[in-house]
Write a structure and sequence with these properties.
Chain lengths: 316, 217
C-alpha cells in the first residue's frame, strides 16, 4: 500500500536511536496530546526494536487518526468476547487469568513454498509495528486500541505463498482443558477465521502481540491474535496456533453456527443490518451517546478498493 | 382510610407482611440499579446494563404476576391473588423504563435509527408489541375500570397470555449464544399457561384436596 507522505514519521525521529525515539513519543503523547500522531491516517508509529517497558505506556493521551481517544486499558482488558472461556464478557478476564501462553507455536503452512512453525521469539524478530485502531464489535460497541505486533504480510512473505493460494485460514488453539468454553458443544470448535489473500496482505492487517506496549493478556488473545480493523471484531481471531494458505474460501466458526447472520467478509458496514444489533450506530466504550458507524469502520480510503465491483449486501 | 388499613392489618397481619415484602422486592431492583450507577459499579457499557437489567426485571415481574392465579387456584396459595395486579404493574413499569432507555437515552430519539432497527430486527418488533399490549391493561387495572368493563374486563386482561409470551420471544430472538435463560422463561411461562387449562386445574386441585384429606384423617 502506498502511504501518503504526511503519514511517514519525520526523518529526524525515524533515524534517532531507539531510546530517544521512544522518549520523543512519550513527550509527544504527553505534551502535544498526540497531535502529531493524530495527523496520521491510520496512526503508524514507527516501532522501537526493543519491547516497550510496561510501566510507561507510550500511548497515554494518544488518539487515533480521527482524533478519537484511546480506550482505557481497564476497559480493554475487562470487557471481552472470548467464548473459549465464557460467553460473559465481564468474566473472561477472571476465568482466563491462569492461561499460560508461553511456550507457543504458530504453524504456518498449506499452499506455501516454505512451511514453517514459528515460536514467539521468532515472531517478535519480524519487524515490529505499533498501530492505533478502532475495534468495532458486531454487538454495536467499539473501542480504540493501541496494538503492537507485526504486519501479517511480513509473515506470509517469509513462507512464500504459492500461486494457487487464494485465502488464508486461521485457527485458535483447541484445548478444552485450557480453554474450558470449548466444552460447550453448541459451537463447532476450534474457532476458525479466514481472509482473502489480498485482505491478508493488506498493510492494515496485523498480528498483534501487545496492547498499550504490554504483552497481550489472555483475555485479549494471548500470545498472538489477528487484528483486521475494517471488519467486525469476531474476524480478529485470538490465540492463533495455525495459519494455512488455502485455495477455497474458509468456513469460519460463525459462518457455521449462524450462516444467515455472519458472512465470510463481515466488513463493518452501516448499510447491512444484523437481526440483533444496530450496525448503523455504535456505542464507543467510555461514551454515552451513540455514534454513527463509519463504512469499513473509517478505513474506507485504505480498503474500499479491495471490494470494487462487489455487492457488499450479498457478500456480507 | 387509615383506620380501615389498620383494621386490615390487625385482622390479617401475615397477608400485610407478604404484600409489603412483594412491593419491596419489586422496587429493590431499581434501587439497586440506581445504587450501582451512583457507585460506578456498572460495567464499561453502562447503558447496556440498564437495558439488560430493566428488561430482566420487567420479564421476571410479569411472569410472577402470571404465576399468581395458578398459585391460588391450583396450589391453594390464595394470598397470591392480592399481589397479582401490583406485580403486573411493576413489570409494566420496568418495561416502560426499558423502552425509554432504548428510545430516549440510547438512541436520543434518532428516529431514523430507531425505524431502521424496527424494520430489521424482529426482536424489537415483538418487544414493542408486548409493550403496546400491556398499555391498555395497565390503564384498566383500576377498580373503577374493572366495574365499568364488567365481564369484558376479564376477557381484556387475558391479553397478558399474549404479551408475556411475546416478551419471551423477544428475549429468545435477541440472545446471541446462550439460550438457557430465555428457554427457562419459555418453559415457566408455558407451564403457567398450561396450569390454567380447566381440565388440569380441577384435576390438580382435586388431587390436592384428596391428599390433604388423607392427612387430616
Ligand atoms: C414487555 C416488554 C419487554 C420486556 C419484558 C423485555 C425484556 C427484555 C429482556 C429480558 C432483555 C434481555 C436482558 C438480558 O439479556 O439480560 C431485553 C433486552 C433488550 N430489549 Fe427488551 N423487553 C421488552 C420490550 C422492549 C422494547 C419495546 C424494546 C425497544 C423498542 C426493547 C429493546 C431491547 C433491547 C435493545 C435489548 C438489548 C438487546 C441487546 O443488546 O442484545 N425491549 N428485553
Amino acid at each position: 500500500m502506498k502511504i501518503p507522505s504526511s503519514e511517514i514519521t519525520p526523518e529526524h525521529i525515524y533515524h534517532a536511536r531507539p531510546q530517544s525515539r521512544r522518549r520523543f513519543l512519550q513527550t509527544a503523547g504527553l505534551v502535544a496530546g498526540g497531535a502529531l500522531l493524530s495527523a496520521c491516517a491510520p496512526s503508524y508509529v514507527e516501532p522501537s526494536p526493543t519491547p516497550i517497558k510496561p510501566e510507561k505506556p507510550v500511548t497515554a493521551g494518544q488518539t487515533d487518526e480521527l482524533g478519537d481517544a484511546i480506550t482505557g486499558y481497564d476497559a480493554i482488558t475487562n470487557y471481552n468476547n472470548f467464548y473459549e472461556f465464557t460467553t460473559d464478557k465481564q468474566a473472561v478476564a477472571r476465568l482466563s487469568a491462569g492461561f499460560v501462553a508461553e511456550p507457543w507455536k504458530v504453524q504456518v503452512g498449506g499452499l506455501v513454498n516454505n512451511p514453517k512453525t514459528f515460536d514467539l521469539d521468532e515472531l517478535r524478530k519480524i519487524t515490529p509495528v505499533e498501530r492505533i485502531y478502532r475495534m468495532r464489535c458486531v454487538e454495536a460497541w467499539s473501542m480504540v486500541i493501541p496494538w503492537s505486533g507485526l504486519t501479517l504480510n511480513r509473515l506470509l512473505k517469509l513462507v512464500d505463498p504459492k500461486s494457487e493460494a487464494k485465502y488464508v485460514r486461521f485457527e485458535t488453539l483447541l484445548d478444552p482443558t485450557r480453554l474450558p468454553g470449548q466444552r460447550d458443544r453448541s459451537f463447532p470448535w476450534p474457532y476458525v477465521e479466514g481472509l482473502r489473500l489480498d485482505e491478508a496482505m493488506h498493510d492494515l492487517t496485523i498480528l498483534a502481540t501487545g496492547i498499550y506496549g504490554k504483552p497481550l493478556l489472555p483475555q485479549n488473545g494471548a500470545p498472538i491474535r489477528l487484528v483486521v480493523p475494517w471488519k467486525y471484531g469476531f474476524k480478529s481471531i485470538k490465540s492463533i496456533t495455525k495459519i494455512e494458505l488455502v485455495a477455497d474460501e474458509p468456513v469460519s466458526l460463525w459462518m457455521k453456527s449462524g450462516p444467515s447472520e455472519y458472512g465470510f467478509y463481515s466488513n463493518v458496514n452501516p448499510d447491512v443490518s444484523h437481526p440483533r444489533w444496530s450496525q448503523s450506530s455504535e456505542r464507543r466504550i467510555g461514551e454515552v451517546i451513540r455514534r454513527r458507524t463509519l463504512m469499513f469502520n473509517g478505513y474506507a480510503d485504505q480498503v474500499a478498493s479491495l471490494y470494487a465491483g462487489m455487492d457488499l449486501r450479498k457478500n456480507y | 382510610m387509615l383506620a380501615w388499613t389498620y383494621a386490615k392489618i390487625t385482622k390479617r397481619p401475615n397477608l400485610m407482611v407478604f404484600r409489603i415484602f412483594v412491593h419491596l422486592a419489586a422496587v429493590l431492583p431499581l434501587a439497586h440499579l440506581l445504587w450501582d450507577t451512583w457507585r460506578g459499579n456498572l460495567t464499561v457499557n453502562p447503558l447496556q446494563d440498564w437495558t439488560f437489567r430493566t428488561g430482566d426485571w420487567a420479564l421476571r415481574l410479569l411472569v410472577a404476576s402470571l404465576a399468581c392465579t395458578p398459585l391460588a387456584s391450583v396450589f391453594g396459595f390464595k394470598q397470591a391473588i392480592t399481589v397479582r395486579r401490583a406485580l403486573g404493574l411493576y413489570g409494566f413499569g420496568y418495561a416502560l423504563l426499558h423502552f425509554f432507555i432504548f428510545v430516549g437515552v440510547d438512541y436520543r430519539f434518532a428516529f431514523d435509527l430507531i425505524w431502521d432497527d424496527l424494520a430489521t430486527k424482529r426482536y424489537i418488533l415483538v418487544g414493542l408489541a408486548a409493550l403496546l399490549i400491556l398499555i391498555p391493561l395497565a390503564i384498566t387495572s383500576t377498580r373503577g375500570w374493572m366495574k365499568r368493563l364488567g365481564r369484558r374486563w376479564k376477557t381484556l386482561h387475558k391479553l397478558t397470555y399474549l404479551a408475556v409470551p411475546l416478551a419471551v420471544i423477544h428475549y429468545i430472538w435477541l440472545v446471541k449464544a446462550d439460550l438457557r435463560d430465555p428457554l427457562l422463561y419459555a418453559s415457566i411461562v408455558t407451564l403457567l399457561l398450561i396450569l390454567r387449562l380447566p381440565v388440569l386445574r380441577t384435576q390438580i386441585s382435586q388431587f390436592r384436596q384428596r391428599l390433604s384429606g388423607k392427612f387430616l384423617h
